[in-house]
# Entry
Amino acid sequence: MKYITILLFIVMACIFVAGTGGAADTIKIGLLAPLTGAAAADGLSVHNSVKLAVERVNAEGGLLGKKVELVTYDDRADAKDAVALARKLIEQDKVVAVVAGSYSTPSRAVAPIFQEEKIPAVAAYAVHPDITKAGNYNFRNGFLGMVEGKAAAYVAVKILKAKKIALLVSDNDFGRTLAEGFKYYMEKYAKGVATIVSQQAYPMQEKDFKAYLSKIKQDVPDLIFSSGYYFQTGPVVKQAREMGITAHILGEEGADSPKFLEIAGPSAEGFVIVTNLNRDDKRPAVKKFLNTYEKQYKIQPDMVGASAYDAFMIICDAIKRAKSVKGPDIRNAIATIKNFNGLTGEIKRFTPEGEVVKDVQVQIVKQGRFRNLGVVSDPELITP
Amino acid sequence: MRLFIEQLLNGIAMGSIYALVTLGLALVYGIMRILHVAHAAVFTIGAYAGLFLFQLTGSLIVAFLGSMACCALLGVMIERFVYFPLMKYPPYVPLIGSIAVMLSIEEVCRLVAGPYILTFPAKLPFPDVYLGGIQISSTLIAVYSITAAVLLVLWYITTHTELGLAMRATSQDISISGAMGINSHVIITLTFVMGSAIAAIAGMLVGIYYNQVYPTMGTVPAYKTLALIVVGGLGSVPGAVIASMLLGTAETLLIGYANIPLPRDALAFIAMIGVLMWRSEGLLGSSR
# Structure
């Protein structure tokens, strides 16, 4: 008798689980983010921020009369994992659109899959050009590596007035494309004004940058462009200051993380980045997000989170305007977005290639926090 | 010239860190002929235990001593519960056991402390030193001093004490030294205590030096130290130290002068292949 009761209980549990899983009274949107591994702090920020976005959309009545449901998977910033999970999102979870909230390497691996299945995907902050080249179902809310690299060079030459610049670049998709943009600007706009005195690339796993920095110290540059992730640029800044290097250090969105501030410690003061989240943004929606985030999660918000939040809201806005959850309808609505009020600035439009057009923000570290230093809004630089 | 000296100093610091991690492995191999891959996990635990104790007490001394005790215990437990029961099988069986232990400890760290990089914001009390216009930063001085102290203590124990004599005898022939009245199991246990305590120092030092503690921080040391003990001569402690120093210096100079974005880890394995081809007993190994 006891066994029959247990059996009955299991059957009921199964029915219950199947029932909730199969219900079509929600709109499912997928999210891929690196929740574990070296990039875990970025993944956490993405997940935290998109959860806030889901709460906001559902509190405002959901989409087309239904609640939005987020399906999150951990791709560990790994291309192989991401491909399997993208298939799972499409085939098992039947999501209507996806926020690609991970790094370039996994994001460019999954872009063709979304294209093939006609599932609109918005890459939150990955910079590699191949992601949007996969086809017209792929959009990018972050900056193209080229755009950000050019903006960084503009900041170096025009705002920080550097004459001799040393490049220290992470040897992967991310670091390389940024460096290309930087060099493109130097070649085209800064001839005779400023020169690149040295270029070095370091492998992904590097922890000890002293060998590179000793060499840079020899050249006495007045600015170092350090292109990499927070777990790379953090040690670069810390070790450079320990070695007595006083040059400006300029980074990019890869260093836009509270973990960067933690790793670099007091050495972070005066460090400048180009990114897309302005901490001193006056718009109420941004202020509210920054405050809520810090209150709820006890850490500072950053650009990867804000970009993923925007990517999610872009999809929701498109669903609302399209009044449909069909892939092609959502895609067309995203493609025609105009002056969308996002956390990461006003999204002017998407280019036909799916690239975002918006201002590049310049932030400087003051008293352990990122603060506004300026903005790059020259259309020649920010249009991909 | 100045650049060369600076790079040399960087390289020696790198080599010192390698040496601290490799020492335990060389000691264990010398005595038990086991490739103690899990040593890298002991190193990770050392960093976490040190960080935890530092946050709890705010004292670096307590953190160092506590972390050393914690790792010594872990090392002995690995020996008792994993290697000892597996000793009767061919050498690859304890090796597989060791890899399993390493992965398990890594996962435990991830589950307990989370997958994030934790920071170790301690300041080691060493001064910046200026020598003829060259600045040697306090972190470098800290690495040199701590490594030198560890090596000195280890040298004293192995050459000037009865324990050291017993250890050397055991490493030469475990059954004959047993017949001479040496309790080999006690010696093995003490070897694990020493090796693991040094790993704790290495773990904390690396954590503070790079201001990063994370679950997979032992992965690269796990395979690099294997290459290093092969290059140094399996089981030879001085060989392991020399190999570490040479590798650290070579890697740094290669980066400083050649600027090839070659993963610096590749160099260790190129050296290992070279040694295996031309001098299979290693730099200081005996061709027994």
